[in-house]
Amino acid sequence: MFDPATLRYDVNGLIPAIAQDAETGEVLMLAWMNAEAVVRTLDSGRVTYWSRSRQALWVKGETSGHVQNLREMRLDCDRDCLLLLIDQTGPACHTNRRSCFYTALRDGDEVEIMAPMPTTA
């Protein structure tokens, strides 16, 4: 049985978690998890992160409705980073974009490569 204590957390007890669309492979976001967030995610199937700014757990989509359902959690070789293969409902980014990685650096310039998703009323 998997033990979250076997992961290598940083000095703050956190581990980076990369959310990737399970169907397309698109990288959607990076957030942080502590051991409790890992356990809650595995138990519920709803991705739970640790908010460094609020110092609290948060379930992705709890207020926005833009939920992440876990298909599979993968550990990297050093056990210090997680890859979450997810089904994303709506945008993953708080800016209302599909992915948090919507800015590219091209020839030294920042280029926005993804517009916000349309809002539904």
TrEMBL record:
Q: Where is the Phosphoribosyl-AMP cyclohydrolase domain?
A: 29-102
Superkingdom: Bacteria
The GO molecular function terms of this record are: magnesium ion binding; phosphoribosyl-AMP cyclohydrolase activity; phosphoribosyl-ATP diphosphatase activity; zinc ion binding
Keyword terms: Amino-acid biosynthesis, Cytoplasm, Histidine biosynthesis, Hydrolase, Magnesium, Metal-binding, Zinc
Q: Which reaction does it catalyse?
A: 1-(5-phospho-beta-D-ribosyl)-5'-AMP + H2O = 1-(5-phospho-beta-D-ribosyl)-5-[(5-phospho-beta-D-ribosylamino)methylideneamino]imidazole-4-carboxamide; 1-(5-phospho-beta-D-ribosyl)-ATP + H2O = 1-(5-phospho-beta-D-ribosyl)-5'-AMP + diphosphate + H(+)
Q: In which pathway does it act?
A: Amino-acid biosynthesis; L-histidine biosynthesis; L-histidine from 5-phospho-alpha-D-ribose 1-diphosphate: step 3/9; Amino-acid biosynthesis; L-histidine biosynthesis; L-histidine from 5-phospho-alpha-D-ribose 1-diphosphate: step 2/9
* Localization per Swiss-Prot or TrEMBL: Cytoplasm
Entry cofactor note text?
Binds 1 zinc ion per subunit.
Function, as annotated: Catalyzes the hydrolysis of the adenine ring of phosphoribosyl-AMP.
Q: What is this protein called?
A: Phosphoribosyl-AMP cyclohydrolase
In its UniProt entry, the species of origin is given as Paracoccus jeotgali
Q: What does UniProt list as this organism's lineage? A: Bacteria, Pseudomonadati, Pseudomonadota, Alphaproteobacteria, Rhodobacterales
